[in-house]
C-alpha cells in the first residue's frame, strides 16, 4: 500500500462506478460552509432518545449534544457558528451500501442486532427509522461534509460519526452506516484528493473501513486498538497497513509512547492528501467496553499529537468522535477540543481564517 492510484493506468469505468460517481456528484451533502461558521459540524438531532430504550446499550446516546453544551457554555464556541449537516439520503448511502443492505435495515430485528439493543426488534420500523436511524444518517451527512470543510479550512470536527464497524455489506457494534467509507469516496470524487490516511484510535479495531478499503492502495490505515476485545475480526486485520495491538489494562504513559512511535512510522511511510482521525474516547480508564486505562489528560494529549501530525505534514484533518461509553466522555472531548484551540491547532473564533 501507499502508491498513488494516479501513477497506474486506470481501467475503463464500469457502469456501477459511473452510477456511484453520478450519485456523488448530484448529492446535496456537500454544500458551501458560510465564512461566518467554523468547521464544527453538529445537529441537535444527532442525539438518540426514545422510550428510554437507548439506555439499554452502554453507549451514551446524548454524548454529542453534551459536548456542544460544554463548548458553548464555556464560551469556547458560539453555537451560531456551528455547521448543521444534511441527512444522508438513500441515494447518498447507495454510493457505498448495496440496496440489499439498506432494505435489510427495514427489519427492526436486523437493526436491533446491529445496534445491540434487543427490544428494538419489537418496535415498528417506522419508529426505528425516525428515532434511531435518522440521527445516525444525519451524523453520516456530517462526516461526509467534514472532508469538504477540512479541505477548505485545514480541519473539521464532526461532533459525531466514526461508525467504524460498519462496512458496505455489514453493520455491527452500534454502527449501521459506513460513514468513514462514504466520507472518503466523496473526497476522492469531489475534492481532488488521491490519498487518504485513516488514523483509528478508538479502543476497538476499525474492521468496517478495513474491509471496505482492503484492496485500495490510495488508503493507508493505522489502527491502534485493544486486541483482546470486540470485534476480533482477524480477516480485516490483514488489511491494516500499520497495526498497534494493545493489551487490556494498557496505561497512559505506554499508550502515548506507542502512539508517538506509530505516528513517526506513518509519517515516513505514507504522504496523504487528507487525514481521517477516528478519535474514540472508549480508551478512557473505566470504560466498560474499551478496557484500557488512559487518563482524561492522556486523551487530550493523544488528540493533540494527531493534530500536530497533520499540521507538520500541512494536511487537512477530519476528526470523528466515534466510541465512548461513559458519561464522562463528553467532558473529556470538550476539554480536548478546547486544548486544540489553545494550542492553535484549530481556530474556533475567526472562522474563515482558521487554515492550518
TrEMBL record:
It comes from the Eukaryota. It is found in: Nucleus. Its main location: nucleus. The keyword Transit peptide does not apply. Pfam families: Hist_deacetyl (PF00850). One of its GO terms (molecular function) is histone deacetylase activity, hydrolytic mechanism. SUPFAM superfamilies: Arginase/deacetylase. One of its GO terms (cellular component) is histone deacetylase complex. CDD domains: HDAC_classIV. This is histone deacetylase. It comes from Apostasia shenzhenica.
